[in-house]
Amino acid sequence: MPQSANRRLIETLTALAAPLGRKLLRAHALSSRTEELLDDVARSLNDLIDLIKSNLVSLPHSEQRATILGAQLGIRRLSKKPAQEAVSAVLVWRRDGSALARVDGASIPLPPKVAVLLDILVADRGFAADNLVGWKTVADILAVLKERTQQGHSKAAVKELVYRLRCLLDCHGASASLVRSHRRLGYRFAVRRAPGSIPKDQNL
Q1: Which CATH number is 84's domain given?
Q2: Which residue from 36, 110, 146, 204 could staple onto 140, CB 3.0 to 4.6 Å apart?
């Protein structure tokens, strides 16, 4: 009799443990997604702090400040301008990791991660069949972002950085269409290659 009771107790506990185990797995998966979301929020807040330090404090007009902030938060509607090409794109780096991008006649202040993205896109490498710098795949961009920022990023984060870069270009008189995208090839900045360079299909 005691053995039969023990057997029933074990069977009952096993039956109760199985759904609890499944719930634990679901809770763990939800926790992981929550941690990823919190990490994304933390990165966005850090970018916002960088933006305030490097850009907003030097802008005299509150309307312009709101415009730049809106661009950083992704709430700006991009103006529709024809596709353009740039003769030159140069980054002047600051000590805090932000940069001032000089694209032909326009000066565009960029927070650190957006500046790193532009630096990747203007590099004279990647596949190209014309006179512009080559295409960079999303995988290449993710690898360099991780190396340069010491943080992992998702494909969605790359799209967000691309959009923010386009917004900032648009805010400061440059064309958002300078940042080109291709479903298969990835992204590039529409700036001409250095004279004498040969387009190659190479990794970053």
Answers
A1: 1.10.10.10
A2: 204
